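Why do we care about 3D structure at all? Because function follows from shape, and shape follows, mostly, from sequence. That is the central idea of this module. The next example makes it concrete: a single protein chain, its amino acid sequence, and then its structure expressed as C-alpha cells.
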Amino acid sequence: MKKNKILLCILALFSAILLHAQRKELNGQLIAEDDVEGIHILNKTANRFAISKADGSFIISAKSQDTLVVTSIKYEVKETVVTQSQEELGSISVQLTEAVTALDKVIVGKILTGSLQSDLENSDAKTDINFYDLGIPGNTKLPLTQNERKLHDADAGSWGYVGLGFGVNFHKLLNQISGRTKKLKDIVELDDRDKCINRLRTDYESIIFEKDSLPENLKNEYFLFSQEDEDFLNLCEEKNELKLIEFLQNKLKAYIENRKEEDKD
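And the structure:
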C-alpha cells in the first residue's frame, strides 16, 4: 500500500512538472487609449503573474487554454483564453476597456426655454457658499499628477475583505511585493520636493541671497542641497512662508560652510 502511495505521488509530481514544461513564455501587449504601465496579468490556470511595462508589454508563462486575467483600477477586468495559434506564435495582445461609472438614471427637472434671463428666474439652483465668500483663506484640491495617478492605481483600495467569503486585493498585494508601490511613492515625493523648491526659488530667491550670495552656477546645487533635507517636505506642507524662508537662509549658511570645508581639504 505504501509503495502504491509513493508511486502515485511520484506520478503526480512528474505530471505537474510535465504540464509546467509544456508552457512557454508569451510576449504580451496591452492595448488601451491611456496609461498601460504597472497593470497586472495573472495566469489563473498556472498561478503565474506579470506586470506590464510603460509601453504595455509583458512576458508571462502560458500555454493553449490557459486563462489570463488582466486587472487594473482604471480598466475593466479582462479575461482571455490563450489560443493554439497564440501559443505557436509566442505572442498575445489584449484590448482593454476603460472603466466607466454610469449613473442608474437621470432626473430631468424644469424644461429650459433657451432665454438666459427666463431660465435663471425659473431655476431653483443656488450658488454654494465657499471659503472665498466668507473671506477665509482656503485652497482647492488640485487634480492628481500623472505619477500620483499611477501611485493611486497601484495602491488603491483595502487589502481584502471578510464577509460570506474571504478575498484579497491581489492588484495591491502584487504591487507591494514587486516594489512598484515603493518606487512610485519615492517618485511622487521627489515631485513634491521639486514643486515646492521651484516655487520658493521663484518667490524668494532675492530675499534668500540678500546678504549671502552665491555664483549663479552654484545656486542650483544649493537648492538641491536644501530640498534633500528630511524636514523639507513637512515645512512645505505647513505652508508657513516665514518658516520656509528662515529654513532656506539657514541651509544657505550651512551650504557655504560645507564648501569652505571642502576647499580646505
